[in-house]
Amino acid sequence: MYFVYVLQHSVLKDMYIGRTDNLKRRLHEHNKGLQTATHRITGEWIIVYTEIYRNKKDAEQRELRLKDHGRAKQELFKRIKNSFLT
What we know:
The protein has 86 residues and is an alpha+beta fold. 35% of the residues lie in helices and 27% in strands. Strands 2-1-3 form a three-stranded antiparallel sheet. The longest helix is centred in the C-terminal third of the chain and has 12 residues, at 56-67. 15% of the residues are buried.
């Protein structure tokens, strides 16, 4: 199984989109500062959305489409707006 996920930082409210085959391990890495793009001094990353794929290539394509900052990302964020931290 492969996961495409959206994280939000508990303090700064930053958003991060990623992909992994082990969601629990990956969230731990983000929160321990092991990922350069998500290293923050305070707060923690919270999962606000996840999609599950059986095929790695499907997950890769979806992640790239969301990271492209195009319509797919706008539509997803509009659909899950009530899941974001306030």
